[in-house]
Design brief:
about 170 residues; alpha+beta; 4-stranded antiparallel beta sheet; 6 helices
Length: about 170
């Protein structure tokens, strides 16, 4: 397979994926080195394709999703419930950020798009390796949530409000 064909196949593969695709998966699929995949992605980006790198792999941005920022507050124990609620209604949690009175805005990319992602995050936090970002602001935090359309974001907003997690901005 020629490199131009492989790059088109990579675009197709990423476009059909529901979750980020690790470079190792692409390397194995196309029988090339990981470095070749990294170079292919760089060339795709240089040619105008919006390939996003996450800690879980590559995504092809469809540009069709809408986002909304929600200000929330809940306990650590409710973290999984909040995440699973958003995902069950068709949303994805792109990030978390807090407004710290001394340090300003502190943010972290999450890319939570299914129940397993939420469970992995919770397991990482409960292991004691680190504290959740919301702990530095007494549970107050913001999420950028993505969805297919505004109607879905409206449903998510209503559900967060009903659970008592939503703080009116």
């Amino acid at each position: 397979m020629k490199s131009a064909e492989r790059r088109q196949e990579i675009l197709s593969f990423l476009g059909n994926a529901d979750n980020p695709v690790p470079a190792n998966v692409l390397k194995d699929k196309f029988n090339v080195s990981r470095q070749v995949i990294v170079q292919d992605v760089a060339i795709l980006r240089a040619n105008g394709y919006d390939v996003i790198s996450t800690n879980r792999g590559y995504l092809l941005s469809g540009g069709q999703e809408v986002t909304r920022v929600f200000k929330c507050r809940h306990s650590f124990e409710q973290l999984v419930d909040e995440g699973e609620l958003i995902i069950a209604l068709g949303g994805g949690i792109e990030d978390i950020f807090v407004n710290h009175r001394v340090y300003g805005r502190i943010s972290a990319r999450l890319d939570l798009h299914n129940k397993l992602h939420v469970e992995e995050l919770y397991r990482s936090l409960v292991s004691g390796a680190s504290k959740p970002l919301m702990s530095v602001t007494d549970g107050y935090h913001y999420h950028t949530v993505s969805a297919e359309d505004d109607r879905t974001l409206d449903e998510i907003e209503r559900a967060l409000r009903k659970k008592g997690y939503l703080i009116e901005i």
